Amino acid sequence: MIPSHFTRFAAIDWSGAKGVRHPGIALAVCDAGDAAPVLVAPPHRAWSRGEILHWLRERAREPMLVGFDFSFAPPHVLRGAYLPGEPAPDTARAFWAYVDARAPDADLGAASFLEARRGTHFYLGAADGTKADFLHFRRCEAHANAAGFGKPSTVYDAIGAAQVAKASFAGMRLLHHLGHHVPVWPFDPPPQSGACVVEIYTTIAARAAGLRKGLSKLRDAGALDAALEALGSRPHVLLSRYTDHATDAILTAAWLRANAARAELWAPPALGAQIARTEGWTFGIS
């Protein structure tokens, strides 16, 4: 069944950086209606990943749709394994536990997991060989590319500004520790009450707001308000500083609110049972 109970919407711009405090994490929340999303202030000077986990657990019973912008699992379908040649599990939840058990990094980090497998499964630089040999993608990423959302990044590429590897594997640790407190779609069926976590891609929100490819970042109040208006939202409360993290979270929360009830986004034709168990799917790709 398609969930219809959500009255609150949250988007989290995530970070896989080393350390405990992460300026790259931003959390924005909005309620049903048309008021602009607002940033949620961290308990300290910047969010930790553990604090985001705690924030989410405390709201497990709220009718809230929560989007995280990292890949919830590596590719599996094309090669039949997440880490070919390594005895890793073959389902997402078991793989999250596998990563967590092998990543002692602070604050749910996972850089050591990647570094221990560089050159074998992950590309961290020229010494690891030909980068193209590491470019494996999930089925939803192929669909996103075909839909015009831009060339996706792979979780096996751990170098460069566009890399999503460290953030994604840190996110997998968070999902493991979240356990079954909150359903994670599509690995779990969408709930009919309480919160639900989905994977988001902030570029989808940017395109829906009319921002052109290559110009999807919002760095001033006027640009953010224009994008919010395109998604049916009123102007936002002025920010003390406009960062990509903050504006991505605000815009994507508004996009989640505007699109949460679209049945086709909860049942993409290409999302079969195998993909739902292993790779997952990005909410918004139909």
Give the number of DSSP strands.
5
* Class by alpha and beta content: alpha/beta
Tally of separate domains: 1
User: Overall pLDDT, averaged?
Assistant: 94
Largest sheet: 5 strands, mixed
- In what range is the share of β-strand residues? 5-15%
Number of H/I helices: 10
Q: What's the helix-strand series? A: EEEHEHHHHEHHHHH
Major sheet strand order:
3-2-1-4-5
Fold and architecture overview:
This protein is α/β, with parallel strands linked by helices. The chain has one domain (1-286). Helix content is 31%, strand content 8%. The protein has a 5-stranded mixed sheet. A hairpin with a 6-residue loop joins strand 2 and strand 3 (38-39). It is globular and about 50 Å long. It starts with 7 loop residues before the first strand and ends in an 8-residue tail after the last helix.
Would you kindly provide a brief summary of this structure?
It is built from 10 helices and 5 strands; from the N terminus they run βββαβααααβααααα.
SSE map:
Blueprint: E1 8-13, E2 26-31, E3 38-39, H1 49-58, E4 64-68, H2 92-101, H3 111-115, H4 139-146, H5 165-178, E5 196-199, H6 202-208, H7 221-230, H8 244-259, H9 263-266, H10 273-278
Parallel strand pairs: 1-4, 4-5
Antiparallel strand pairs: 1-2, 2-3
